Structures are given as C-alpha cells and as structure tokens.
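Kindly go through one protein, given below as sequence and tokens. The question is how this chain folds according to its tokens.

***
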Amino acid sequence: MSRFTEIASGLQFPEGPVAMPDGSVLLVEIRRGTLSRAWPGGRVEVVAELGGGPNGAAIGPDGRCYVCNNGGFAWTEYNGVWIPGDQPADYSGGRIEAVDLATGAVETLYTHCDGVPLKGPNDLVFDRHGGFYFTDLGKTRPRDMDRGAVYYAKADGSFIREVLHGCTTPNGVGLSPAEDRLYVAETTTARLMAYRITAPGEVEHVMGPEAMLAGSANYQFFDSLAVDAAGNVCVATILNGGITIVPPDGRGVRHVPVDDPMTTNICFGGRDLRTAYITCSFGGRLLACEWERPGLALNFLNR
C-alpha cells in the first residue's frame, strides 16, 4: 500500500467521507455541526449547517446527501484536541436529515420510529432497492447509556422500521457485494457482526457466536466501515489507529496502521475505486492512499 497523502487539515472531528465523481470528498465535521466538502489542494467549504452532531453520510437515490445526526456531544479539550463524550446539555435529538447539495437545503426525515425517539444515529448505507440501513449508537450520560439499534428506512421519509434492538454501541454499517449480509461494527466491544438479510429491511435474528464475524482481544474500538470489491470489510479502528481488514469468512484479519488514534472512517473513490479516503479525527485530517484492491461501488453514487 502506498504512502498516505493529506487532502485536508484543520477539520473539526471529521467523519462520514463520501468520495464524489468530481474529485471532491463530502464529509461531516461533527464538532462544527456541518456537512462540508474537501477539494484536492486542501480547500474546505461548508455545504450545509446542520447543528447537533452530523455523523455518517451517504448519497441517496435522489442525489441528496443523507446524514445521520446524533444530536451532539459534550466536548472535552485534551492537549489542544477536542474529544467527544456524553450527551450534552444542548442535546438536540437524534435524526436523519437529507441535504440538497446544490442549495444546502436541509430536510429532517426521521426523528422517531413507532413513537420511540432516535437517540444517536451514527452511520448508514443504501441498498439497491433505494432504502437504507442505519445504526443508532445511542447516547451516554454520567451514570447510564442507551441500548443501540439498527433501523431500515425509505429515502422519501415514508417508512421506518426497527431491524435490530439491544445492540451494544452499533456504529459502522455496510452491505456485502451480493447484499445478502448486513455488517454492523460495535464500538465498545470491538466486534464485527454479520446478519443474513432475508428481505429488504429484514434480517435473520441470530443469538449466538455465528453472528460475530470478527472480534478483538486488544483494547481498541471499532468505528465506521466500508466494504471492498472482494467483500472484505474495512473497519476504522480507534486507539489502535488504523483500518482493520476482515475477510468475508472472518479468517486472516489484518490491520493497516494510520498515524491517528482516532481513525474513524474510510471510503473508496478515484479511478477504479482504488483510492481510500480516511478520516483522522484526532488530528482533524482527511488522508488518501492507493488501496490494495478496489472498493465496492456504492448504490446511487454515479461515477
């Protein structure tokens, strides 16, 4: 794998990168509360002011950028670096938003599911049917924390259903190339779960070790993820900064180090999807490198 190149710096806890056909990279700045666009050469512009805590992002069937907004964090400064923490006093509620990239107009699509409020939506992925799965990690408070969930929703705001509940800090989410498996990375357990999809928005509920594709005995956290064209799941890894590569059979797990302890997300773009874009949230940077194999093309992201 080639050396990393810095695309942009000075970002306020970047996450949710989306490599666009024009060579730019959409991403969120969680602490800044924005959907932003980074251009080659380092220029960064704000696409939309979202407030709260914009987290994961993906392009939907209508060309808008769909954003998981976790409602915000309480931030702590550590040696000049801002670290996210508990639910803040000005928590604005979890929600799914859609951003018109041409105008910056923001529409809130979902704040509840069957009367239950969304707490901390984190990451999302669209299937070929035009719906999207998203994780809700929940929020933490000084003495308690929410149980997480995974949802499925339609892009037009007309339908949302709970797919999984009682997950432990579900974060990254992705689909296998055949879209027959749903991958969910759990942050605090450092486990990568794999659920068999039985129909759009429906998964086989498995309560046993066969649901875990990979785990780690090391002290590290799993964050967001992307899948490559061979079906390997590439999971951004915190503390043990880098990308953990998990083959579809769960064997031969490898780790690609990145010089940031808060490596939070990865996406693929560029020619033949061979460029990996990686968000480094501790240092506020967006990095790029030539990846070992092409990424999996995402639904509705025209190239």
About this structure: The chain has a mean pLDDT of 96. The chain is about 0% helix and 50% strand. Residues 5-290 form a domain with the Neuraminidase fold (CATH 2.120.10.30). The chain has one domain: 5-290.
